[in-house]
Amino acid sequence: MKVVVKNNLKVLGKFTLVHEDGTEEEIDGKRSFCRCGLSEAMPFCDNTHKSRLKWVKKVTDWKDDLRAMKYEKHGPGPDEVK
Fold this sequence. Notes:
Oligomer: single chain
Distance between the termini: 54 Å
Radius of gyration: 21 Å
Largest sheet: 3 strands, antiparallel
Helix content: 25-40%
């Protein structure tokens, strides 16, 4: 068996997969397992992280930009004052 860790967790070779319900599956080949928690095919990786994480980053960047512009214009909000 060989294990490769990148965006997902790839396991190659012969191994036994024990599912949450306790059932066991004998696998002889390659499987990629989800590490981000976004997969629709849990516990397997369906590459959802590639599209969703880019979207989340764009939304986060946009919100950060908006906060910065608001701060420049109005100063810190009531929850930001120490």
